[in-house]
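2024-03-11 09:14:02 INFO queue: dequeued item Beta-galactosidase, len=607
2024-03-11 09:14:02 INFO validating residues
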Amino acid sequence: MRSFILFLTATILLTGGLVKAQPKHQFTLGDNDFLLDGKPFQMISGELHYPRIPREAWRDRMKMAKAMGLNTIGTYVFWNLHEPQKGQFDFAGNNDIVEFIKIAQEEGLWVILRPSPYVCAEWEFGGYPYWLENEEGLVVRSKNPQYLNEYDKYIKELGKRLSRYQVNHGGNILMVQIENEYGSYGSDKDYLAINQKMFKDAGFDGLLYTCDPAADLVKGHLPGLLPAVNGLDNPAKVKDLINQNHDGKGPYYIAEWYPAWFDWWGTKHHTVPAEQYTGRLDSVLSAGISINMYMFHGGTTRGFMNGANYNDKSPFEPQISSYDYDAPLDEAGNATPKFWAFRNIIQKHLPAGVNLPAVPPVKPTIVIPQIELNNVAGLDDLKLESKNSQNPLTFEDMKLDYGFMLYRTTITGGKSGILKVKNLRDFAVVMINGETVGNLDRRTGLDSISVSLPAGNVTLDILVENLGRINFGKYLLQNKKGIVGKVFFQNNEITGWQNFPLPLKTAGSYKPKPGLASSNTPVMKKGVFSLASLGDTYLDMSDWGKGMVWINGHNLGRYWRTGPQQTLYVPREWLHTGTNEVLVFELLKPQSQKLSAVDKPILDRLQ
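2024-03-11 09:14:37 INFO prediction written
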């Protein structure tokens, strides 16, 4: 019962006087409990990330959080979204973190803010902007002056926008996390102290804390700050670990509690039954420990923002677009069995006679039987102006952040042999005289194919896709994309390249090109369909090969027949009654012409 002694009080403060009069509150550390205005307060929190949810649905997801019994939400802040190019900041649309926090305040939810610079989060480059790779000598997560200079400018920009929403300034941000699981990467306490000072100088003058997995907490903890623990839910062990690193006292916070896990291409969909977690949640709440579920709602990693894992013992593992995470809310924001199981546990800890809000109804879904698509653009229509070079240039050399690069050269034909691309990052379509002859794939180590060249001068094209920069581990600084090495044919180096960027940042406008129909090279296709009523739906891409999809200008993410994800979630908020447009950039099966949408996701089918 003590777990929720201030649950209603906190809600009233947020939904009533706080929004209108914005009174300041005190959120401090007691020996055993967090203290809100001097009274014990237990955070029952869930993680949800604003860029993984359509802006139009932020409020709906927060209402679901309250209905499950959460009084707090946690979110990272993603540096690469907010400073996509050096010195150019973006806080508009789905990047409007200020509006996200204000909506949470209106909905009666407190916020735990995790402003990076590094987030991991199965996110491209762990949240770092790609252009850091172009800063000579820069070393992330270190005292390197170039890094600290760029980091400082970013965190001050955040502070200008977000510091006013801290609880001690009348807002709903209870705590702010510095760095993120730093103990899994390093142990430099001076670096962590610099982080702390930078946050304070940026205006984050409330309660700061660190978080680390249990095994790495000692390395990542900065004395004087509260150490939160990730991935540990045994109450006695949580309390013992924090006591050891916090002068023998609490309060106690599990900053990341995992109800399941994420997925990557070519492996099964990860699921864990709710009953394996309900007892653990019950014991944590009974012990008065605050908790943040990672994830409460995963959503979708749209566009090119998925990250990848890689280390010396495992292959390159780019993550899928769905961030369903087998979480209490599914990818579309509907309650799963975990939601109901966790809600029942939380209800047990409410004071007698207090009930949770009613759960909003399941959202409607629709089926779209068939959409006809026509070819509208080939590679030459999509590429930007090239730059010539002896050796292939990387994405970073071309200031290309995400997407694709087309490498083109002319070689003498009339012979056969092995074509090898050294240090390919990450997936390639190889074409001879405008016809696809094979694919290369970093995941499987496939960097060579056997080719037969026709007589005469032969055009060699290699289209390379960036499948996501590494987001965790020691290889954060080995994240350049494209052809990072050299290309060889018959063991002879090929030189003299044209490098064409294909960023595909926006959907673009294209007219039908029937002449492309006979080609077997990557192609952009367009279809138009009409809707009389709206609902969430899922594009079934299982008969297609590999590529990306846009609906009414919104990038839905990547698809790949290899699985386990076979559908792309289409939010109701991005559809229109009447005419809608879909664009598909298909790499492997350009002959595909028909598309349908189903009313349930397919996230567990490997090909």
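2024-03-11 09:14:37 INFO annotate: The chain is about 20% helix and 30% strand.
2024-03-11 09:14:38 INFO item closed
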